[in-house]
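INFO worker-7 received task bundle
INFO bundle size: 2
INFO processing item 0
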Amino acid sequence: METIQSYLDNLINDHTLIERALVMFEKEIAKGEQMNPDIALSLITFLEDYGDECHNQKEEQFYFPLLLERGLPPMGPVAVMLEEHKSERNYLSEIKQMIAKFKINNTFNPQLTETTAEYVELTKNHIWKENDILYPMGKRILSTQDGVDLLHKFEEFTFSRFGQDGYMRYSDMIDAFEHQTGGKVNMLAGLQLDVITNMLDALPVELSFVDENDIVRFYTHQNKKKIFHRSLSVIGRTVQKCHPEKSVHMVNKILAEMKEGSRDKADFWINFDSMFVHISYYAVRDDKGNYQGCVEMVHDIKPYRDLEGEKRLL
């Protein structure tokens, strides 16, 4: 986990964990008679213990009162969020009872599917409203010192409830459930391959991927003009054979350090023709930190260097 730098990071990181739990919970309930009640109840425990007793209470005890103190109207968005917190609790209580009954008599109540769908929809919308509306609104009216004080109170509160590593323990728990249930969201699964390819080609950057064995496996802009020419013949070859001999030692150094875990990024910039080209390399790792390969990104950043002022309208 990256170091939390602000009270908003703290709240939004909570939301990310909650959303991951919601995805797995919804999938488990959708199994109907095949549902594993122990997994479902464990996810409810997380949603109650961390989602409500930690995250929601940080908002209710510290964040919301400060927003009201700084000028938000009592019957405005804070009131709406408080009511939705109550609704979430009521839904979780009802759902937990239905799952407990299923565990005893092994008879699935179809109402459980409907109630879960209502709860998940409410909570997802709630998170969206906070992330995209309330939090930006609060950021405009809270001072820098307010933010520092809030973060301190959030950390103290979490420590008082769960100890020093409270967040990480719950984060590890969600990681474990995702591994156990296969519940991690794959957003690319809903896109056809040609859409993914066209999406990547639409970006003003050129990407290429080298696997853990230094073999070139992929590059974008296959049929478009590129800053540095690539041909299909490079696919399946080692990346060392795709660089001038004088730069191979640097390629080997970067890849070796990425494999051993001492480097995650390397970047360079050069004048090339009429462009100012930025070249960067990023280590690709799995959830456990194991090296899977390296992504290279090539980008002409001269247009950005020439920008001045602001552009806020189309």
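INFO item 0 finished
INFO processing item 1
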Amino acid sequence: MPNQKQKAHSNSASWWTVARSEEVTSKKPLSSDIGNQELVLWRDAAGIARAMEDRCPHRRAPLSRGCVRENGLIQCGYHGWSYDGETGRLREIPNMKSEQRFPPLYKAQSFAVAESGGLVRVCLIPGAVAPVTNAVALPLHGTAHVALAHEHYLSAFFDDPGMLFGMSGVEFTPYLASELKVEAGRLVMERNCQWRGLHWPSSFSSEFPITLLSKTDPVTGETELTLRDDALHELLTAVIAPVPAARGITAIRWRARLASRLDGLRAKRLLIGAPFRVFETVDATALRRLTPSASVQGQDLRAAIIQTSQASAA
């Protein structure tokens, strides 16, 4: 397991998905968080997503309770001080001339923002280089808040993803098609799956006509999911982004899409109901009884990747 110092460094240097693009507007500030770091998000006059610490440097009032002005500045609702989202600098105070210089003391903490694929990501290190991600927005989307710590959420994902999310008609099995491994800095695993309820006369079949390929960021846990049939045709693609929130909660933003063509009656089961959904609750009894499997190797691999990253940055 990575130590606390390694965790703190890797967390601040990582890109966390703190909102979906639809949630960030120029009409109203959005409150979000990464652990205990409270954030305020909005779009400036150019439509660019901005992120700052959610408190005014003047009297520490939450900026998310203020408003976004027509010029793109965020205005505190307490005394009306306005800030520039790119730099965090104080730009205007009511009843004071705009050309007047304001003391640097009153500068809000701004953060690096990157937006792609319908997701807004924030890095707590200002000026950080934006990550290379999928630029295509997936049409299905949602947000869930689960009463489970981020580390435990990731462990449950590696051991039994069916506890955390579901795909219409799909049953996840405990059998892996490939061992957990590292590829391009991500944890890659393929899990055998079956179509639910189509095993007769036995309730179980040793055949696995579909597999779930997952590629997970070792720090944030953001994961690309691809459901494929036995011919490796893509059936469903999703991105889930778990982020540690306050009070031990994990916030999950997700997006998904079905393949443009689904061959076979079984594949068309994905069209019944919600093709992809993230659960708002986790069965505590089942989680307690869940035997650690891939998560054990996942912890070791994550620690090794973080240590390597630390050495490279030193």
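INFO item 1 finished
INFO post-check item 1: Residues 1-6 have pLDDT under 50 and may be disordered.
INFO post-check item 1: Helices lie at 4-13, 150-159, 284-289, 294-313.
INFO worker-7 idle
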